[in-house]
Amino acid sequence: MSDLRVGVVGVGVMGADHAERVVRKTAGARLVAVSDPDWARAEGLGARLDARVVADPLELIASNEVDAVILASPGFVHAEQLFACLEHGKPVLCEKPLTMDAASALQVVEREHKLGRQLIQVGFMRRFDPEYAAMKQLLDSGELGRTLLLHNVHRNKSVPTTFRSEMIVRDSMVHEVDVARWLFGSEITRITVRTPQPTSLVADGVLDPQLALFELANGAMADVEVFVNFQVGYEVRCEAVAERGSATIGLGAGVFTRAGGQWGGAMPADFRVRFEQAYDIEVQRWVDATVRGEIDGPSAWDGYAAAAVCEAGLESLSSGRPVEVTLADRSKVLG
Amino acid sequence: MSDLRVGVVGVGVMGADHAERVVRKTAGARLVAVSDPDWARAEGLGARLDARVVADPLELIASNEVDAVILASPGFVHAEQLFACLEHGKPVLCEKPLTMDAASALQVVEREHKLGRQLIQVGFMRRFDPEYAAMKQLLDSGELGRTLLLHNVHRNKSVPTTFRSEMIVRDSMVHEVDVARWLFGSEITRITVRTPQPTSLVADGVLDPQLALFELANGAMADVEVFVNFQVGYEVRCEAVAERGSATIGLGAGVFTRAGGQWGGAMPADFRVRFEQAYDIEVQRWVDATVRGEIDGPSAWDGYAAAAVCEAGLESLSSGRPVEVTLADRSKVLG
Amino acid sequence: MSDLRVGVVGVGVMGADHAERVVRKTAGARLVAVSDPDWARAEGLGARLDARVVADPLELIASNEVDAVILASPGFVHAEQLFACLEHGKPVLCEKPLTMDAASALQVVEREHKLGRQLIQVGFMRRFDPEYAAMKQLLDSGELGRTLLLHNVHRNKSVPTTFRSEMIVRDSMVHEVDVARWLFGSEITRITVRTPQPTSLVADGVLDPQLALFELANGAMADVEVFVNFQVGYEVRCEAVAERGSATIGLGAGVFTRAGGQWGGAMPADFRVRFEQAYDIEVQRWVDATVRGEIDGPSAWDGYAAAAVCEAGLESLSSGRPVEVTLADRSKVLG
Amino acid sequence: MSDLRVGVVGVGVMGADHAERVVRKTAGARLVAVSDPDWARAEGLGARLDARVVADPLELIASNEVDAVILASPGFVHAEQLFACLEHGKPVLCEKPLTMDAASALQVVEREHKLGRQLIQVGFMRRFDPEYAAMKQLLDSGELGRTLLLHNVHRNKSVPTTFRSEMIVRDSMVHEVDVARWLFGSEITRITVRTPQPTSLVADGVLDPQLALFELANGAMADVEVFVNFQVGYEVRCEAVAERGSATIGLGAGVFTRAGGQWGGAMPADFRVRFEQAYDIEVQRWVDATVRGEIDGPSAWDGYAAAAVCEAGLESLSSGRPVEVTLADRSKVLG
């Protein structure tokens, strides 16, 4: 069985990480091509990892030498590039967001559905994190009864000053949206985003932290704190409350020290540290599934649904009121 | 300096505990009288603890032999008994609720204010728990910056089947109301109580768990889960999120075991186990303050404000919508 | 029932704490007299706590106004003061050490035995710490099977430079000696004290940390690290390993913070913080037992046995070899 | 760059795991051949993983199609197979033990040294565990000052009844030997193995648990509990005590639950669960280093030194006394 030949579109931080990952840590795959608007960046990486540099991402996608694509380009070019993947029948692991809005995401879903074959997997990597996976397994086992509530926390040490209130919903809360949909196995039907008096350590007008309430079709609820200027470190925590117990992940791990008057440990600096293993597993399993002609993770629909929830979330952020999530009828779209 | 002579009105579980506490663990106090509608119960306790049994609680309150009163009678007789304490100038530690509704609680506040001397302390014992006290101190120190959010969890193993949805607000959530007001040093101005699909391990029609959002005058917010049929044990957890860090109390404590395939420890069975030390400290400090002619803990106003928030909470529980808390003007009432 | 009238001999840090404790936190007891070679210190405390100051400790012990004595004087005067307590039939809570050596301690044991009544309780306060007590209860329940091993750690932030290697055994390790004897319910028959290359943060010639192995009559063993210049804070940890599981106490407690890049909590500064509750319980239970004419804690024999183990430990410290503990025949001494 | 062609000798549990690992999780390597005395077992695995089955392990080692070898055969054939690897210049990842005794292990070291090239890496996988690696990095950083002591615990849920006292030293404690040598960067010069009264849940005559003391050339010490019939689960814990603090790894991780009256989490069932990630990293890094013509982990000398310490440990186990470790002069052997 020969190796899957992978091309990476967009080699900024995430794309370069993925390219390295394919080369250094993934069985059964080979990096053959990279593409990036920043030619020097692409060339440097291509030289280091022994991959061809292709100027035009659409050419990379179309190339006969490329079996499958990792899309780590900016979100606003995803739609075009995903359509190209679908046209050429190329399996693609697409970093979130699927596209820039729910309407175009739905078009992607529909176009893929017409092909009659799932080619698109969305990069919600948390589903591959061993802790999240173990929690999902525990909840699905029914050992704790039905799951009633989630309490989620998503904190970044800090973000660039260009990171505005809307991005907190679109780029950070979106992960919590996927986690809630996935853990409950149900769609979010309503979202409320509220904001307390913001931290003073942020530019004027940025609403940080935010507190969201998700209401799901199955009657469950999730509350979510997103706080992207927490100062301390990166923290993603999730507590599921079920009828006969609760389960929590994301508590401190690693070396436990007693030093400087304190007991405890270090917070991870950022998501790349916290979720490195999740990314490794995601890419390995995506490669394995691709070889089998399948996907093994969040689908285009999941990307679309997350986008629709975030759009409603943005409306709620500005109104302070609950907003219904309008989702296409899944059974019709995928029927 | 002779001992403070304490009378206890109502010697059910809490009152009997307090009577024992005065006798067995409290310096500078002596139990002199107990009163309870259940004469046999009062007599048993009085015999065991060497205290006089008084049939009429108002007679106990009025008695020259009693310097101060602990009120652990049912809430619906509090108003009358508190008025008696005020009339006779007797300091009183009153178990929550202060009275049955905000209107009568306000009358108590006003009556005490006219006396020109604080005689009433309300039994929100959590303020005396060493963990809560340490958290309060940490937050007030400013070390973590301004406090922005609280995430609170209040869980009971189970409650009697007579415990209905409204009691979850009145009897359980009320503690969270006091904690939020106290930690933030600010009034709650709006409350939203929402309920997911209830646990199946509860009688039909009981809305358990409940998820509340408190909005405070200072712009802060608190979300609170109250789940009184959690099955596992008693758990009270509080996380404060501030500008430069967070602080959590109520995580597992005690003996850490590795046994039966698990690492961890035992959940406390109920609030009497979890807050035993808090009660001990509360009563000792109340005795000490009473001797000095002061109170040293939550005031009648705190009892009134908690009642007002819970009334709004009940309205929200039935409507599902945010409800403004209507509070008398403190500066006028106590001005 | 009138209060137990307590006199405190020696009002340095521990004695003053105990005097305060009797006055401020203990039911059923009254502080009537204090004595200290430092007259000003005694007078200051006596004035503050409204107790008579007696110059001669033996006069305090003999006084008709004193029902029971707390001995917090230096160890080298304990023998004489304990004999006085025995002579006058005064119950006494004696801070460790019982006396300065095993031989004199045995004399105390024998003298008390002749009286036919236990008057002496030794101040090994750890037995009253709620965590230790819960561990003892768990081990005695048999739930984990027979206990095989203890792993103990005793660390101080730092000690005065006058604290020499021998004092690490006598004053610090002695607590571990009592803990091992108590938890196993068996005598220590052999002790080995070994020392690695010492920390550089200590005066030349001081052997710190030390590593001891206790072997017990019932076949169990305990290893103990004592490190009195740990720099970080005060830490006392104990892990019991039994046939079907292990139990650990002394892990971090209190407020859990995420701040400054770290998750965790603060180490207690010293033993007075860590064991404050243990001391409170010890004194309350000693008062209660004294009123009943009993002791309720470690006996003179326990003080003697600890002294004998420490003497062997000192011999092992200098030789590096296992040393047998020579203990009088308990059944003969107390027969 | 073409893939490294790997042959696996011995496809019992560990060897089969490694073969799977090469195929499913390792970049830059290909499984080409397997060998096992149990032909059916080898054939099954070879068919499943698409690898050639070779009856004679020495033929596999000699084969031109094999670039590098993973040795997971029983220890008693290691010497012969390692010599074959050296003869044919084949890099080899050899599961512990290197050989069955220190003398033959030293011969392996000497033979490799004559080649002038390191071909042998020993499978002490803990060095690749992220927690151990982080601890090593912390200790080497000097942040906590010099490391003085290790407290190690190694527990298995249970072992087959054929697992005798000597195997506890050879097969379990040997990992602690490597950990101590590696973390301190110093040789163990003396070992004492002591045993308390054994657990009753083990066959007569088996000395379990065992308590060892390692003394190192640099003046440090390590105490080690090995308990292979702990009943609860697999637990490997390591606490390093340094001049300015301590660091611990191996505390509970994973999903934190509150259920069944308890808070906590599950113990891993066995070492394959606990150290899966360590094995993955070990094999990937071994492959990467092999391609570069290097080793990247414990060397033949480390295997030899561990064997020599265990031999002394066995002597101490039977005598109960400290035994000096006799090690060849490293500078002469490798000079």
UniProtKB/TrEMBL annotation, chains A, B, C, D:
Residues 4-123 form the Gfo/Idh/MocA-like oxidoreductase N-terminal domain. It is an enzyme of class 1 (oxidoreductase). The keyword Isomerase does not apply. GO terms for biological process: inositol catabolic process. It catalyses: myo-inositol + NAD(+) = scyllo-inosose + NADH + H(+). Keywords: NAD, Oxidoreductase. Belongs to the Gfo/Idh/MocA family. This is Inositol 2-dehydrogenase. The lineage of its organism: Bacteria, Bacillati, Actinomycetota, Actinomycetes, Propionibacteriales. The gene is iolG.
